[in-house]
């Protein structure tokens, strides 16, 4: 028998609410099928099954909130999925086909998040509710009472997403998300001995190549700079496996593939980190499609569990309207986070002459248990080198 | 197309890229990326939407002319 357990959909998750079963006892399931929906602090996630078989028995009913690792259902797997005499004993579980549920982290509390702490944002009195016009109109349309909602907009104003969350019964989704992020990042800072490095990279060749590509292609096939940065990062990581790894059970566990968790901001605040799979093997147009799909699904609340559990390293890129540099907090149990600031034109010395040049600041936050400054510096230098030959990415 | 038709297509493209946006809440003068918190992916998707709706493949060098609704109309209404 296979065991289908509440997955860890990120380092910041300690429990989830099973909101819907898409499959029912007796249904045939295949590896990769979405069989349930789980509500987390970061939204509703479709959860996949990782083996073929028949859904034998549901253990957790819809509406129940249970800790990560809890048995949700039993899957009659492999050959046992074929019709068999009722009295036939079940074969041993095909353990190799069942990804072990990530145990609740030693640092992650086993209990649900604590009740709202004193000093949290209080609900404003009814007569002083701050809300955007769109939020007010939507609330009226949906029959939602604004007074019970904690706003996530500027100055605590209620925005459309808050009203939508309240209408879905999500209540203080924004507040829960901030707590979840805070818990994961506090854990990271508490447990991981971070060190930080940064370097400014000549992005001129990459920018020129990108402009040439985009001029020759219709809008739907154009690329963003982030795609080049992701690919260069993935290729560089192949030479530095200690940065594409997990630190678990007091040892370094390098990953086989490079699945880059991409920090993605959500409308109305908060973030998720869905993974772009096998980045080192993808062409740039393929990566652009992957990134576009992930961002769209992240923002529409249609991520799958594998999107959130497969990341082997994290990249945060500030896009074209951010700051010069970003120094991130490692997403446990990963061992590194790479940050890219906004590419910008700056004075640059070429052949003894100061010239205007597109540059980008790359940073590395790395786990000192897994690596050190020398290796980290070499890694950033490798990223820089790869970006000088964008046609090879 | 008339300017009104272009404006309607631009607003439709925005709504497609930033779901939940109400056209009545979109200012014609305020930069779109500021008022709707559009990132670079949103903006390139907006350009794709314009291409699909109006058949105009805006060159990357002209993106800055699409900063506002009015800017879009001026650019897209050119003869």
What are the defining features of this structure?
heterodimer; A: 393 residues; alpha+beta; OB fold (Dihydrolipoamide Acetyltransferase, E2P); Chloramphenicol Acetyltransferase; 7-stranded mixed sheet; 4-stranded antiparallel sheet; B: 79 residues; mainly alpha; Non-ribosomal Peptide Synthetase Peptidyl Carrier Protein, Chain A; 4 helices; globular
Account of the 3D structure:
The complex is a heterodimer of chains A (393) and B (79). The longest helix of chain A has 19 residues. With 393 residues, chain A is of the alpha+beta class. In chain A, strands 9, 12, 15, 16, 17, 18 and 19 form a seven-stranded mixed beta sheet that branches. In chain A, strands 1-8-6-3 form a four-stranded antiparallel beta sheet, with no helix packed on it. Chain A contains eight helices and 19 strands. Chain A has three domains: 81 residues, Beta Barrel (OB fold (Dihydrolipoamide Acetyltransferase, E2P)); 46 residues, no CATH class; 199 residues, 2-Layer Sandwich (Chloramphenicol Acetyltransferase). Chain B has a single domain, classed as ACP-like (Non-ribosomal Peptide Synthetase Peptidyl Carrier Protein, Chain A, Orthogonal Bundle). Helices cover 53% and strands 0% of the residues of chain B. Chains A and B meet through helix 1, helix 2, helix 4 and helix 6 of A and helix 3 of B.
Low-confidence residue ranges of chain B: none
Give average pLDDT of chain A, whole number.
83
Structural class estimated from helices and strands of chain B: mainly alpha
Cα separation of the termini of chain A: 44 Å
* CATH architecture heading of chain B: Orthogonal Bundle
Count of beta strands of chain A? 19
Distance between the termini of chain B: 10 Å
Radius of gyration of chain B using CA atoms only? 11 Å
The first-level CATH class of the largest domain in chain A is given as Alpha Beta
CATH architecture of the largest domain in chain A: 2-Layer Sandwich
Average residue pLDDT of chain B: 94
């Amino acid at each position: 028998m296979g065991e289908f357990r509440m997955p860890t959909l990120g380092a910041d998750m300690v429990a989830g609410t099973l909101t819907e079963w898409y499959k029912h006892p007796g249904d045939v399931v295949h590896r990769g099928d979405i069989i349930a929906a789980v509500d987390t602090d970061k939204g509703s996630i479709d959860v996949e099954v990782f083996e073929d078989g028949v859904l034998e028995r549901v253990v957790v009913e819809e509406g129940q909130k249970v800790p990560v690792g809890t048995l949700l259902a039993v899957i009659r797997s492999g050959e046992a999925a074929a019709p068999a005499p009722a009295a036939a004993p079940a074969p041993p579980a095909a353990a190799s086909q069942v990804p072990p549920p990530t145990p609740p982290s030693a640092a992650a509390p086993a209990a649900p998040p604590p009740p709202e702490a004193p000093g949290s944002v209080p609900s404003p009195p009814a007569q002083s509710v701050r809300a955007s016009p769109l939020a007010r109109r939507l609330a009226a349309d949906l029959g939602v009472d604004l007074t019970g909602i904690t706003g996530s907009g500027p100055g605590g104003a209620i925005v459309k997403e808050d009203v939508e969350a309240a209408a879905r019964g999500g209540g203080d989704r924004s507040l829960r998300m901030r707590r979840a992020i805070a818990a994961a990042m506090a854990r990271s800072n508490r447990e991981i001995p971070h060190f930080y490095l940064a370097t400014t990279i000549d992005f001129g060749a990459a920018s020129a190549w990108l402009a040439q590509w985009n001029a020759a292609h219709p809008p739907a096939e154009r690329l963003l700079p982030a795609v080049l940065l992701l690919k260069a990062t993935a290729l560089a990581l192949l030479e530095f496996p200690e940065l594409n790894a997990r630190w678990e059970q007091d040892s370094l566990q390098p990953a086989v593939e490079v699945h880059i968790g991409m920090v993605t901001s959500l409308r109305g605040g908060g973030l998720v980190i869905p993974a772009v799979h096998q980045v080192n093997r993808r062409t740039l147009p393929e990566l652009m499609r992957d990134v576009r799909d992930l961002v769209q699904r992240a923002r529409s609340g249609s991520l799958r569990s594998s999107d959130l559990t497969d990341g082997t390293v994290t990249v945060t890129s500030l896009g074209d309207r951010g700051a010069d540099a970003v120094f991130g907090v490692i997403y446990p149990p990963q061992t590194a986070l790479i940050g890219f600031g906004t590419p910008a034109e700056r004075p640059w010395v070429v052949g003894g002459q100061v010239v205007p040049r597109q540059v980008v600041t790359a940073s590395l936050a790395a786990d000192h248990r897994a690596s050190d400054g020398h290796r980290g510096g070499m890694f950033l230098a490798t990223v820089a080198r790869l970006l000088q030959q964008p046609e090879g990415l | 197309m008339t300017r009104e038709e272009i404006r309607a297509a631009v607003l439709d493209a925005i709504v497609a890229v930033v779901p939940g946006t109400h056209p009545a809440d979109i200012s014609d003068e305020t930069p779109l990326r500021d008022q709707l918190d559009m990132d670079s992916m949103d903006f390139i998707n907006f350009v794709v939407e314009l291409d699909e709706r109006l058949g105009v493949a805006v060159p990357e060098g002209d993106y800055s002319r699409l900063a506002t609704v009015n800017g879009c109309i001026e650019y897209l209404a050119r003869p």
